[in-house]
Specification:
Blueprint: E1 3-8, H1 16-24, E2 29-32, E3 41-45, E4 48-52, E5 65-68, E6 73-74, H2 76-88, E7 97-100, E8 104-105, H3 108-121, H4 133-141, H5 148-152, H6 157-176, H7 185-196, E9 200-201, H8 203-212, E10 217-220, H9 245-251, E11 260-266, E12 269-271, H10 283-293, E13 305-307, E14 309-310, H11 311-321, E15 325-329, E16 339-348, E17 351-353, E18 366-374, H12 391-404, E19 407-412, E20 420-421, H13 427-437
Parallel strand pairs: 1-10, 1-11, 2-5, 2-10, 5-7, 6-8, 7-9, 11-15, 14-16, 15-19
Antiparallel strand pairs: 3-4, 12-13, 16-17, 16-18, 19-20
The protein binds guanosine-5'-diphosphate, 6-O-phosphoryl inosine monophosphate and magnesium ion.
Length: 438
Protein backbone atom coordinates (compact mmCIF):
# COMPACT_ATOMS: atom_id res chain seq x y z
CA UNK A 1 0.00 0.00 0.00
CA UNK A 2 1.31 3.44 -0.76
CA UNK A 3 3.18 5.58 1.73
CA UNK A 4 3.61 9.01 0.18
CA UNK A 5 5.13 12.23 1.42
CA UNK A 6 3.21 15.49 1.01
CA UNK A 7 5.79 18.25 1.01
CA UNK A 8 5.69 22.04 0.63
CA UNK A 9 7.65 23.13 -2.45
CA UNK A 10 7.94 26.82 -1.53
CA UNK A 11 8.09 28.79 1.77
CA UNK A 12 5.14 27.06 3.43
CA UNK A 13 1.36 27.70 3.32
CA UNK A 14 1.11 26.06 -0.10
CA UNK A 15 -2.13 24.31 0.85
CA UNK A 16 -0.65 21.10 2.29
CA UNK A 17 -3.52 20.84 4.78
CA UNK A 18 -6.12 20.89 2.04
CA UNK A 19 -4.21 18.31 0.00
CA UNK A 20 -3.72 15.94 2.95
CA UNK A 21 -7.40 16.30 3.87
CA UNK A 22 -8.47 15.46 0.31
CA UNK A 23 -6.21 12.40 0.06
CA UNK A 24 -6.88 11.26 3.62
CA UNK A 25 -10.31 9.98 2.62
CA UNK A 26 -8.47 7.11 0.95
CA UNK A 27 -5.52 6.58 3.32
CA UNK A 28 -5.50 4.85 6.72
CA UNK A 29 -2.98 7.10 8.48
CA UNK A 30 -1.63 10.60 8.25
CA UNK A 31 1.59 11.37 10.10
CA UNK A 32 3.36 14.67 10.84
CA UNK A 33 7.13 14.40 10.80
CA UNK A 34 8.49 17.81 11.72
CA UNK A 35 7.93 21.33 12.96
CA UNK A 36 5.46 22.18 15.68
CA UNK A 37 2.60 24.60 16.20
CA UNK A 38 4.38 27.12 13.97
CA UNK A 39 2.46 25.27 11.23
CA UNK A 40 -1.12 26.17 10.33
CA UNK A 41 -2.87 23.75 7.99
CA UNK A 42 -6.29 24.90 6.86
CA UNK A 43 -9.09 22.52 5.92
CA UNK A 44 -12.52 23.73 4.86
CA UNK A 45 -15.55 21.50 4.23
CA UNK A 46 -19.33 21.59 4.78
CA UNK A 47 -19.13 25.09 6.24
CA UNK A 48 -16.47 24.11 8.80
CA UNK A 49 -13.02 25.68 8.88
CA UNK A 50 -10.22 24.01 10.81
CA UNK A 51 -6.65 25.26 11.21
CA UNK A 52 -4.61 22.33 12.50
CA UNK A 53 -1.21 23.11 13.94
CA UNK A 54 0.06 19.83 15.37
CA UNK A 55 -2.43 17.09 14.61
CA UNK A 56 -2.25 15.75 11.04
CA UNK A 57 -5.20 16.72 8.86
CA UNK A 58 -6.32 13.12 8.34
CA UNK A 59 -7.88 13.27 11.84
CA UNK A 60 -10.83 15.15 10.30
CA UNK A 61 -11.80 12.03 8.36
CA UNK A 62 -13.91 9.65 10.47
CA UNK A 63 -12.06 6.56 11.66
CA UNK A 64 -8.68 7.59 10.27
CA UNK A 65 -5.57 7.57 12.45
CA UNK A 66 -3.14 10.41 12.99
CA UNK A 67 0.46 10.25 14.21
CA UNK A 68 2.74 12.96 15.59
CA UNK A 69 6.27 11.68 15.10
CA UNK A 70 9.54 12.04 17.00
CA UNK A 71 10.70 14.84 14.69
CA UNK A 72 7.90 17.14 15.85
CA UNK A 73 8.36 19.52 18.78
CA UNK A 74 5.23 19.46 20.93
CA UNK A 75 3.88 22.27 23.07
CA UNK A 76 1.64 20.21 25.38
CA UNK A 77 -0.69 23.14 26.04
CA UNK A 78 -1.14 23.73 22.29
CA UNK A 79 -1.79 20.05 21.70
CA UNK A 80 -4.37 19.82 24.49
CA UNK A 81 -6.06 22.96 23.13
CA UNK A 82 -6.21 21.41 19.67
CA UNK A 83 -7.68 18.16 21.01
CA UNK A 84 -10.31 20.21 22.89
CA UNK A 85 -11.17 22.34 19.85
CA UNK A 86 -11.71 19.21 17.80
CA UNK A 87 -13.85 17.69 20.56
CA UNK A 88 -16.03 20.82 20.61
CA UNK A 89 -16.56 20.35 16.88
CA UNK A 90 -17.65 16.75 17.54
CA UNK A 91 -14.37 15.16 16.46
CA UNK A 92 -13.16 12.64 19.01
CA UNK A 93 -9.48 11.75 18.68
CA UNK A 94 -9.56 8.98 21.28
CA UNK A 95 -7.91 5.84 19.95
CA UNK A 96 -6.99 7.67 16.73
CA UNK A 97 -4.26 10.06 17.83
CA UNK A 98 -0.75 8.82 18.60
CA UNK A 99 2.09 11.02 19.83
CA UNK A 100 5.71 9.90 19.84
CA UNK A 101 7.30 9.28 23.21
CA UNK A 102 10.49 10.68 21.64
CA UNK A 103 9.04 14.02 20.52
CA UNK A 104 10.66 16.99 22.25
CA UNK A 105 8.61 19.22 24.53
CA UNK A 106 8.30 23.00 24.19
CA UNK A 107 8.28 25.01 27.43
CA UNK A 108 7.29 28.66 27.97
CA UNK A 109 10.96 29.55 28.50
CA UNK A 110 11.60 28.56 24.86
CA UNK A 111 9.24 31.32 23.77
CA UNK A 112 10.89 33.77 26.16
CA UNK A 113 14.34 32.97 24.76
CA UNK A 114 13.07 33.24 21.18
CA UNK A 115 11.63 36.66 21.85
CA UNK A 116 14.91 37.87 23.36
CA UNK A 117 16.98 36.35 20.52
CA UNK A 118 14.79 37.93 17.85
CA UNK A 119 14.98 41.32 19.57
CA UNK A 120 18.77 41.01 19.78
CA UNK A 121 18.99 40.45 16.01
CA UNK A 122 17.30 43.79 15.37
CA UNK A 123 16.75 44.42 11.66
CA UNK A 124 18.17 40.96 10.85
CA UNK A 125 15.41 39.18 12.78
CA UNK A 126 14.09 35.95 11.24
CA UNK A 127 10.46 36.92 11.75
CA UNK A 128 9.63 33.70 13.55
CA UNK A 129 6.18 32.60 14.69
CA UNK A 130 7.19 33.12 18.38
CA UNK A 131 6.10 29.62 19.33
CA UNK A 132 9.41 28.52 20.87
CA UNK A 133 10.16 26.21 17.96
CA UNK A 134 13.80 27.21 17.30
CA UNK A 135 14.95 27.18 20.95
CA UNK A 136 13.28 23.81 21.47
CA UNK A 137 15.16 22.29 18.50
CA UNK A 138 18.34 23.95 19.83
CA UNK A 139 17.90 22.05 23.10
CA UNK A 140 17.25 18.84 21.21
CA UNK A 141 20.49 19.14 19.24
CA UNK A 142 22.42 20.24 22.34
CA UNK A 143 21.12 17.06 24.03
CA UNK A 144 19.55 18.92 26.89
CA UNK A 145 15.92 18.76 25.70
CA UNK A 146 13.11 17.01 27.53
CA UNK A 147 10.90 14.59 25.60
CA UNK A 148 7.36 13.29 25.94
CA UNK A 149 8.69 10.17 27.72
CA UNK A 150 10.35 12.47 30.31
CA UNK A 151 7.18 14.50 30.74
CA UNK A 152 5.16 11.37 31.52
CA UNK A 153 7.57 10.06 34.15
CA UNK A 154 6.24 11.89 37.18
CA UNK A 155 8.99 10.47 39.44
CA UNK A 156 11.87 12.01 37.51
CA UNK A 157 10.32 14.89 35.57
CA UNK A 158 10.47 17.66 38.23
CA UNK A 159 14.20 17.14 38.83
CA UNK A 160 14.98 16.96 35.10
CA UNK A 161 13.01 20.14 34.48
CA UNK A 162 14.74 21.95 37.35
CA UNK A 163 18.17 20.91 36.06
CA UNK A 164 17.43 21.99 32.47
CA UNK A 165 15.82 25.21 33.61
CA UNK A 166 18.87 26.15 35.69
CA UNK A 167 21.08 25.92 32.61
CA UNK A 168 18.65 27.77 30.34
CA UNK A 169 18.21 30.54 32.86
CA UNK A 170 21.96 31.02 33.17
CA UNK A 171 22.33 31.13 29.37
CA UNK A 172 19.50 33.65 29.05
CA UNK A 173 20.88 35.90 31.76
CA UNK A 174 24.34 35.76 30.20
CA UNK A 175 23.27 36.25 26.60
CA UNK A 176 20.26 38.53 26.94
CA UNK A 177 20.38 39.83 30.51
CA UNK A 178 16.98 38.28 31.15
CA UNK A 179 15.90 35.81 33.82
CA UNK A 180 13.45 33.16 32.73
CA UNK A 181 10.12 32.50 34.38
CA UNK A 182 9.50 29.10 35.97
CA UNK A 183 6.64 29.90 38.34
CA UNK A 184 4.20 26.99 38.49
CA UNK A 185 5.87 25.29 35.55
CA UNK A 186 6.32 21.82 37.07
CA UNK A 187 2.72 21.51 38.24
CA UNK A 188 1.30 22.96 35.02
CA UNK A 189 3.25 20.43 32.96
CA UNK A 190 2.37 17.58 35.32
CA UNK A 191 -1.31 18.34 34.65
CA UNK A 192 -0.74 18.54 30.89
CA UNK A 193 1.10 15.20 31.04
CA UNK A 194 -2.03 13.55 32.43
CA UNK A 195 -4.15 15.02 29.63
CA UNK A 196 -1.78 13.58 27.02
CA UNK A 197 -0.72 10.28 28.59
CA UNK A 198 -3.23 8.16 26.69
CA UNK A 199 -1.93 9.31 23.31
CA UNK A 200 1.79 8.83 23.87
CA UNK A 201 3.43 5.73 22.47
CA UNK A 202 6.31 4.48 20.34
CA UNK A 203 4.99 5.77 17.04
CA UNK A 204 7.86 4.32 14.97
CA UNK A 205 6.81 0.82 16.11
CA UNK A 206 3.17 1.71 15.41
CA UNK A 207 3.80 3.03 11.90
CA UNK A 208 6.18 0.27 10.87
CA UNK A 209 3.65 -2.34 12.04
CA UNK A 210 0.91 -0.53 10.10
CA UNK A 211 3.07 -0.57 6.96
CA UNK A 212 3.82 -4.29 7.53
CA UNK A 213 0.07 -4.90 7.60
CA UNK A 214 -0.37 -3.11 4.28
CA UNK A 215 -1.88 0.10 5.63
CA UNK A 216 -1.58 3.27 3.56
CA UNK A 217 0.10 6.31 5.05
CA UNK A 218 0.33 10.00 4.18
CA UNK A 219 3.47 11.62 5.55
CA UNK A 220 2.51 15.25 6.16
CA UNK A 221 5.26 17.85 6.06
CA UNK A 222 5.04 21.17 7.78
CA UNK A 223 6.58 24.40 6.39
CA UNK A 224 8.23 24.15 2.96
CA UNK A 225 11.44 23.29 1.11
CA UNK A 226 12.84 26.83 1.25
CA UNK A 227 12.34 26.91 5.04
CA UNK A 228 14.28 23.66 5.53
CA UNK A 229 17.16 23.97 8.00
CA UNK A 230 19.66 22.42 5.55
CA UNK A 231 18.33 23.32 2.11
CA UNK A 232 16.36 26.53 2.62
CA UNK A 233 17.32 30.20 2.52
CA UNK A 234 19.44 29.90 5.68
CA UNK A 235 19.39 31.58 8.18
CA UNK A 236 15.87 32.72 7.20
CA UNK A 237 14.45 29.26 7.73
CA UNK A 238 12.77 27.23 10.43
CA UNK A 239 14.73 24.82 12.63
CA UNK A 240 13.61 21.46 11.26
CA UNK A 241 13.90 19.21 8.21
CA UNK A 242 10.81 20.12 6.20
CA UNK A 243 11.96 18.34 3.05
CA UNK A 244 11.03 14.76 2.13
CA UNK A 245 14.09 13.26 3.83
CA UNK A 246 12.72 14.53 7.14
CA UNK A 247 9.87 12.02 6.85
CA UNK A 248 12.28 9.12 7.46
CA UNK A 249 14.14 10.68 10.38
CA UNK A 250 11.08 12.36 11.86
CA UNK A 251 8.95 9.22 11.88
CA UNK A 252 11.50 6.40 12.11
CA UNK A 253 10.55 4.76 8.84
CA UNK A 254 13.09 3.67 6.24
CA UNK A 255 13.46 5.29 2.79
CA UNK A 256 12.45 2.12 0.96
CA UNK A 257 9.10 2.20 2.76
CA UNK A 258 8.20 5.37 0.88
CA UNK A 259 6.63 5.05 -2.56
CA UNK A 260 6.86 8.63 -3.68
CA UNK A 261 6.69 12.32 -3.03
CA UNK A 262 3.93 14.81 -3.80
CA UNK A 263 5.03 18.46 -3.85
CA UNK A 264 2.54 21.24 -3.22
CA UNK A 265 2.88 24.69 -4.77
CA UNK A 266 0.62 27.66 -5.13
CA UNK A 267 0.05 29.06 -8.62
CA UNK A 268 2.19 31.95 -7.35
CA UNK A 269 4.57 32.36 -4.38
CA UNK A 270 4.18 33.66 -0.83
CA UNK A 271 6.44 34.00 2.16
CA UNK A 272 5.84 35.01 5.80
CA UNK A 273 8.69 36.46 7.82
CA UNK A 274 12.02 37.87 6.68
CA UNK A 275 14.48 36.63 4.08
CA UNK A 276 15.14 36.55 0.35
CA UNK A 277 12.27 36.37 -2.13
CA UNK A 278 13.48 36.94 -5.71
CA UNK A 279 10.06 37.09 -7.39
CA UNK A 280 8.41 39.29 -4.76
CA UNK A 281 5.96 41.78 -6.29
CA UNK A 282 5.95 45.52 -5.69
CA UNK A 283 3.63 46.57 -2.85
CA UNK A 284 0.56 47.51 -4.88
CA UNK A 285 0.55 44.36 -7.00
CA UNK A 286 1.26 42.23 -3.93
CA UNK A 287 -1.64 43.82 -2.06
CA UNK A 288 -4.04 42.98 -4.85
CA UNK A 289 -2.96 39.35 -4.93
CA UNK A 290 -2.93 39.19 -1.12
CA UNK A 291 -6.52 40.36 -0.97
CA UNK A 292 -7.69 38.00 -3.69
CA UNK A 293 -5.82 35.03 -2.22
CA UNK A 294 -6.60 35.98 1.43
CA UNK A 295 -2.88 35.75 2.08
CA UNK A 296 -2.72 36.25 5.82
CA UNK A 297 -0.91 33.78 8.09
CA UNK A 298 -3.16 31.00 9.40
CA UNK A 299 -1.30 31.05 12.74
CA UNK A 300 -0.09 34.61 13.29
CA UNK A 301 -2.45 36.56 11.00
CA UNK A 302 0.58 38.33 9.49
CA UNK A 303 0.17 39.52 5.89
CA UNK A 304 2.05 37.16 3.59
CA UNK A 305 4.52 38.62 1.11
CA UNK A 306 3.39 37.79 -2.44
CA UNK A 307 5.18 37.20 -5.73
CA UNK A 308 5.15 35.35 -9.04
CA UNK A 309 5.75 31.63 -9.43
CA UNK A 310 9.47 30.85 -9.31
CA UNK A 311 10.42 27.85 -11.45
CA UNK A 312 14.08 28.02 -10.39
CA UNK A 313 12.94 27.44 -6.84
CA UNK A 314 10.47 24.73 -7.84
CA UNK A 315 13.13 22.95 -9.91
CA UNK A 316 15.29 22.96 -6.79
CA UNK A 317 12.38 21.65 -4.70
CA UNK A 318 11.79 18.85 -7.23
CA UNK A 319 15.46 17.84 -6.94
CA UNK A 320 15.80 18.06 -3.16
CA UNK A 321 12.56 16.19 -2.46
CA UNK A 322 12.40 13.88 -5.49
CA UNK A 323 8.92 15.17 -6.27
CA UNK A 324 7.05 12.71 -8.51
CA UNK A 325 3.81 14.63 -8.70
CA UNK A 326 3.04 18.29 -8.23
CA UNK A 327 -0.16 19.76 -6.79
CA UNK A 328 -0.97 23.30 -7.90
CA UNK A 329 -3.28 25.17 -5.51
CA UNK A 330 -4.98 28.58 -5.66
CA UNK A 331 -5.30 28.58 -9.43
CA UNK A 332 -8.59 30.49 -8.93
CA UNK A 333 -6.70 33.46 -7.45
CA UNK A 334 -5.50 34.19 -11.01
CA UNK A 335 -9.04 34.07 -12.45
CA UNK A 336 -9.07 37.83 -13.10
CA UNK A 337 -5.38 38.21 -13.95
CA UNK A 338 -4.94 39.29 -17.60
CA UNK A 339 -1.23 38.39 -17.76
CA UNK A 340 0.83 36.08 -15.60
CA UNK A 341 4.58 36.28 -15.08
CA UNK A 342 6.60 33.15 -14.39
CA UNK A 343 10.23 33.21 -13.36
CA UNK A 344 12.18 30.78 -15.56
CA UNK A 345 15.74 31.73 -14.60
CA UNK A 346 17.97 33.82 -12.34
CA UNK A 347 20.77 36.18 -13.28
CA UNK A 348 23.46 36.88 -10.70
CA UNK A 349 25.13 40.23 -11.39
CA UNK A 350 23.98 39.80 -14.99
CA UNK A 351 25.26 36.23 -15.51
CA UNK A 352 22.81 33.30 -15.80
CA UNK A 353 22.69 31.24 -12.61
CA UNK A 354 21.43 27.68 -12.66
CA UNK A 355 21.79 26.74 -9.00
CA UNK A 356 20.05 28.06 -5.92
CA UNK A 357 22.59 30.23 -4.07
CA UNK A 358 23.71 29.01 -0.65
CA UNK A 359 24.73 32.40 0.69
CA UNK A 360 21.86 34.66 1.59
CA UNK A 361 23.70 37.83 0.51
CA UNK A 362 23.83 36.54 -3.08
CA UNK A 363 20.06 36.93 -3.36
CA UNK A 364 20.49 40.71 -3.20
CA UNK A 365 22.15 40.56 -6.63
CA UNK A 366 19.72 38.19 -8.28
CA UNK A 367 17.41 39.36 -11.05
CA UNK A 368 14.66 36.97 -12.06
CA UNK A 369 13.98 36.37 -15.75
CA UNK A 370 10.29 36.21 -16.55
CA UNK A 371 8.14 34.71 -19.25
CA UNK A 372 4.72 36.29 -19.69
CA UNK A 373 1.79 33.95 -20.16
CA UNK A 374 -1.75 35.00 -20.92
CA UNK A 375 -4.37 34.78 -18.21
CA UNK A 376 -7.78 33.15 -18.63
CA UNK A 377 -10.07 35.80 -17.14
CA UNK A 378 -12.76 33.22 -16.41
CA UNK A 379 -13.89 31.57 -13.19
CA UNK A 380 -12.31 28.27 -12.22
CA UNK A 381 -13.45 28.29 -8.60
CA UNK A 382 -16.54 26.15 -9.08
CA UNK A 383 -14.85 23.55 -11.28
CA UNK A 384 -14.61 20.00 -10.05
CA UNK A 385 -13.15 18.43 -13.17
CA UNK A 386 -10.08 19.15 -15.26
CA UNK A 387 -11.98 19.22 -18.57
CA UNK A 388 -13.72 22.46 -17.60
CA UNK A 389 -10.49 24.42 -17.23
CA UNK A 390 -10.12 27.43 -19.56
CA UNK A 391 -7.48 26.80 -22.27
CA UNK A 392 -5.07 29.42 -20.89
CA UNK A 393 -5.27 27.83 -17.42
CA UNK A 394 -4.41 24.43 -18.92
CA UNK A 395 -1.56 26.11 -20.81
CA UNK A 396 -0.25 27.61 -17.58
CA UNK A 397 -0.24 24.21 -15.88
CA UNK A 398 1.33 22.55 -18.92
CA UNK A 399 4.06 25.19 -18.98
CA UNK A 400 4.89 24.47 -15.32
CA UNK A 401 4.86 20.73 -15.90
CA UNK A 402 7.04 20.96 -19.04
CA UNK A 403 9.57 23.26 -17.40
CA UNK A 404 9.89 21.04 -14.33
CA UNK A 405 9.47 17.72 -16.12
CA UNK A 406 6.99 16.67 -13.44
CA UNK A 407 3.31 15.79 -13.79
CA UNK A 408 0.59 18.01 -12.35
CA UNK A 409 -1.15 15.42 -10.18
CA UNK A 410 -3.80 17.59 -8.58
CA UNK A 411 -5.32 21.00 -9.16
CA UNK A 412 -7.05 23.09 -6.53
CA UNK A 413 -9.37 25.93 -7.52
CA UNK A 414 -10.84 26.95 -4.18
CA UNK A 415 -10.31 26.53 -0.45
CA UNK A 416 -13.12 23.97 -0.03
CA UNK A 417 -12.52 20.26 -0.02
CA UNK A 418 -14.49 19.65 -3.22
CA UNK A 419 -12.79 22.36 -5.32
CA UNK A 420 -10.10 19.82 -6.16
CA UNK A 421 -9.44 17.43 -8.99
CA UNK A 422 -6.94 14.73 -9.83
CA UNK A 423 -6.32 14.34 -13.59
CA UNK A 424 -6.68 10.71 -14.67
CA UNK A 425 -3.60 8.81 -15.78
CA UNK A 426 -1.27 10.51 -13.31
CA UNK A 427 0.96 8.85 -10.73
CA UNK A 428 -1.08 10.50 -8.01
CA UNK A 429 -4.31 9.07 -9.47
CA UNK A 430 -2.65 5.63 -9.44
CA UNK A 431 -1.62 5.95 -5.78
CA UNK A 432 -5.11 7.06 -4.86
CA UNK A 433 -6.66 4.13 -6.73
CA UNK A 434 -4.28 1.72 -5.00
CA UNK A 435 -5.11 3.17 -1.58
CA UNK A 436 -8.86 3.00 -2.33
CA UNK A 437 -8.69 -0.60 -3.67
CA UNK A 438 -7.26 -1.80 -0.41
P1 LIG B 1 -0.60 24.90 4.52
O1 LIG B 1 0.14 25.47 5.67
O2 LIG B 1 0.31 24.47 3.42
O3 LIG B 1 -1.55 23.82 4.91
O4 LIG B 1 -1.48 26.10 3.92
P2 LIG B 1 -2.35 27.17 4.78
O5 LIG B 1 -3.57 26.50 5.26
O6 LIG B 1 -1.51 27.85 5.78
O7 LIG B 1 -2.64 28.25 3.67
C1 LIG B 1 -3.33 27.95 2.51
C2 LIG B 1 -4.55 28.86 2.44
O8 LIG B 1 -5.09 28.81 1.13
C3 LIG B 1 -5.68 28.43 3.35
O9 LIG B 1 -6.38 29.56 3.77
C4 LIG B 1 -6.55 27.57 2.45
O10 LIG B 1 -7.91 27.54 2.87
C5 LIG B 1 -6.41 28.29 1.15
N1 LIG B 1 -6.50 27.46 -0.06
C6 LIG B 1 -6.00 26.22 -0.28
N2 LIG B 1 -6.21 25.85 -1.56
C7 LIG B 1 -6.84 26.88 -2.16
C8 LIG B 1 -7.29 27.12 -3.49
O11 LIG B 1 -7.13 26.32 -4.40
N3 LIG B 1 -7.88 28.33 -3.73
C9 LIG B 1 -8.06 29.27 -2.76
N4 LIG B 1 -8.64 30.42 -3.09
N5 LIG B 1 -7.64 29.08 -1.50
C10 LIG B 1 -7.03 27.90 -1.21
P1 LIG C 1 3.03 25.70 7.36
O1 LIG C 1 3.20 24.26 7.80
C1 LIG C 1 4.87 29.56 6.48
C2 LIG C 1 8.35 30.70 8.92
C3 LIG C 1 8.18 31.88 9.86
C4 LIG C 1 9.59 32.43 9.84
C5 LIG C 1 10.44 31.15 9.79
C6 LIG C 1 10.97 30.70 11.14
O2 LIG C 1 1.73 26.30 7.77
O3 LIG C 1 3.33 25.83 5.91
P2 LIG C 1 9.78 29.54 13.22
O4 LIG C 1 8.68 30.02 14.12
O5 LIG C 1 9.47 28.25 12.53
O6 LIG C 1 11.12 29.50 13.89
O7 LIG C 1 9.92 30.69 12.10
O8 LIG C 1 9.61 30.15 9.24
N1 LIG C 1 7.34 29.61 9.08
C7 LIG C 1 6.34 29.39 8.23
N2 LIG C 1 5.93 30.08 7.14
N3 LIG C 1 4.24 28.41 6.83
C8 LIG C 1 4.64 27.70 7.91
O9 LIG C 1 4.13 26.51 8.23
C9 LIG C 1 5.71 28.20 8.69
N4 LIG C 1 6.34 27.77 9.80
C10 LIG C 1 7.34 28.63 10.03
O10 LIG C 1 7.25 32.80 9.36
O11 LIG C 1 9.83 33.13 8.65
MG1 LIG D 1 0.17 27.21 6.85
Amino acid sequence: MPAIVIVGAQWGDEGKGKVVDYLAASFDYSARYGGGHNAGHTVIFDGHRFVLQLIPCGILRPGKRAVIGAGVVVDPAALVAEVDTLAQAGIDVTGRLFVSNRAHVIFPYHRQIEKAAEAARGAAKIGTTSRGIGPSYEDKMARRGLRMCDLLDSATFPAKLAETFKEKDAISRGAFGQSLDSAGLASQYAALAERLRAYVTDTAVLLNAALDEGRSVLLEAAQGTMLDIDHGTYPYVTSSSCTAGGACTGLGIAPQRIDGVVGVTKAYTTRVGSGPFPTEMPDLEAKELRDRGKEYGAVTGRPRRCGWLDLVMLRYAVMINGINSLVVTKLDVFDTQPEIQVCTGYRYKGTPLREMPAQVEMFEHITPEYKTLRGWCAPTSSLHEGQGLPAAASDYLKFISDQLQVEIGMISTGPERDATFVPPGTQLAAWLAEAVRH
